[in-house]
Specification:
Blueprint: H1 17-27, H2 32-37, H3 41-55, H4 61-74, H5 80-90, H6 95-103, H7 110-124, H8 131-139, H9 144-167
Helix pairs in contact: 3-9, 4-5, 4-6, 4-7, 4-9, 7-8
Length: about 190
């Protein structure tokens, strides 16, 4: 496998130094994903921008977590599932939601389950949903804005999941306790 550099504030390309500093300021450390992305400053900048836009969307913490983790689990991202487990805890998301997403079991309420189903339809069908599938999402209490916000969240996850697959990014120490494997059982 190709080795990717886990950049630090000292080794990052000049165009990525401020981005790395921003990551360190936000998290208290440089997440491995960001350390890898620093190799291509435009990718790290885009990731940070899309993350901020998604977090500031109309979706609440539970809903953000459903979109992130539905995509992470579907894409079998060894790094993002544990990272977003830790992030969900920091956002005070109920462990029952996180556990259901990690394990592929039913979510605690029908609305969140509709969001997971819709997100997975977007991913698996590459956005080619039927009118009935879209209407089912709207009937669950979501809006046309939410449809587009799911695409925004998915865009963020494409950047991170694919980077982690290609770079085999090591899970950060703070998230190791949330290790996960694709079969839905903690690693």
């Amino acid at each position: 496998m190709t080795d990717f550099t886990l950049h630090t504030e000292d080794t990052a390309p000049e165009d990525a130094k401020a981005l790395i500093a921003k990551s360190k300021g936000a998290y208290g450390f440089i997440p491995g994903l960001h350390a890898v992305m620093a190799e291509a400053p435009g990718l790290l900048e885009a990731y940070q921008a899309v993350h901020e836009l998604f977090v500031n969307s109309s979706l609440d913490a539970d809903e953000l977590t459903v979109v992130w983790q539905a995509v992470n689990v579907e894409n079998e991202c060894h790094y993002c599932v544990p990272a977003h487990t830790g992030i969900a805890k920091s956002m005070k998301v109920d462990d029952a939601i996180t556990d259901a997403l990690r394990n592929g079991t039913p979510l605690p309420n029908a609305r969140l389950e509709a969001l997971r189903a819709f997100t997975l339809q977007v991913v698996r069908q590459r956005g080619n949903l039927s009118e009935a599938e879209i209407q089912a999402f709207l009937d669950a209490g979501f809006t046309k804005r939410n449809i587009l916000e799911v695409i925004l969240g998915y865009s963020q996850k494409i950047m991170s999941n694919y980077t982690n697959h290609l770079a085999d990014t090591p899970v950060d120490k703070v998230f190791e306790k949330f290790a996960w494997s694709p079969n839905g059982i903690a690693a």
